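Aim 2 progress update. The chain analyzed this quarter is reproduced below.
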Amino acid sequence: MNKFLSDLAASISPYVPGEQPKGRQFIKLNTNENPYPPSPILADVLRETNIDSFRLYPPPECDDLRDAIAQYYGVTDKNVYVANGSDELLAWCYPAFFVGKKPILINDITYSFYKVYAALFGVKTEIIPLTETFDIPIAEYGRENGGIIIANPNAPTGRILYTDQLEFIIKSNPDQVVLIDEAYIDFGGKSAIDLTRRYKNVLVVQTFSKSRSLAGLRCGFAIGSVELMDGLARIKNSINSYTMDSINLKLAKAAIKDTEYFHKTVNVVMNTRERVSGDLKHLGFNFGESFSNFLFVTHPKIKAADLYQKLYDSGILVRHFNQPRIDNYLRITVGTDEQMDILIKRLKTWL
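Predicted structure tokens:
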């Protein structure tokens, strides 16, 4: 036992990220990274960056990036907040909106960081089980609560709630924050950002990591009412006023402006997902429709843990969750067409 830990640190079980292999080369389909590089415009920004500017602090309010995001989504800069990845924003939401209130509602199968943050900040949770087909039972979200967190599309299942379903939940909870985590929304879903214009309790969080190929940059943003932005600002400025560095701000701004490249790569990923979905179904895999850049699959004739190991041994890395209800499923990131062809070829030899 580590005698230096506080009672809090000793009691929590930290989030475990997907494996980032060292040394051995893998076809990496386990952490939902985009298989294509970010916008080529970013290389120009790097070449033109004056390194002398690094001696100065970056603008604490990240004005230029917030303005670029606001223009893209048709909101004002006062309705936008940015941070080092959406995970940082999610973390700020707990002390800003949920601490000291009634239990928040989250699904039993969803992004596991939600439970980690709840333990860290002492926020009670009430778990809402997904249906047998992994759908979110929206009627269950009318119960008394201290806030709601929904990943849409959900991870790791890839299922989605439509606008009318989300609006039902929002209307049922006018006095609580409804946080909608849209990390994968660009791969086939419709964002709830329009709902933030009509409901002050809706906070939409997105990331540059997936659809804009910038997982290594760390940039996320939230869109919501001025009241919710005030809550995020109070927490952020109580921890670190300068959360985003100068290069991050410039590159993220360039990425949000290159809409042509963004749509091109997103469409390629979606087309590959649809093609590979057909191949996997032909091989006997079962799974629901995915609105994300991954597929959540199971096979009736081979255990997911065994298949994971076979793929690993052959140089293909996917994600297996050793958790109740989903321990016989694999989450497979959609890679390039070439990578997915190799995956299907290997699966055919076993199945």
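The chain has two domains: 18-37+260-350, 41-257. The first strand starts at residue 27 and ends at 28. These observations will guide the mutagenesis experiments scheduled for the next reporting period.
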